[in-house]
Design a protein that fits this description.
mainly alpha, extended, 79 residues, 70% helix
Length: 79
């Protein structure tokens, strides 16, 4: 299974399942990934964003739009 396939499958999960997955993946990176303070701040941010999505108050952007904007930025960068 590729990373892309795993990501696509993960995005089909319910929000609370995705949150659990993020927590488990983050915990598996404890070999210097982030300080406890940084990890706590990220988890709070993830929780906040997840609540906003669930409440319908988040402004979501389609991946195709994000990908296009990134491609445009990359094209504008000097070589």
């Amino acid at each position: 299974m590729t990373v892309r396939e795993v990501l696509e499958a993960a995005l089909l999960l319910e929000a609370n399942e995705r949150e659990m997955l993020v927590e488990e993946l983050t915990a598996s990176l404890h070999g210097g990934f982030a300080s406890d303070e940084i990890e706590k701040a990220w988890m709070e941010e993830i929780d906040r964003r997840s609540r906003d999505i669930d409440a319908g108050t988040a402004e979501l952007t389609e991946w195709s739009d994000v990908r296009e904007r990134l491609a445009q930025r990359r094209a504008r960068r000097p070589s």
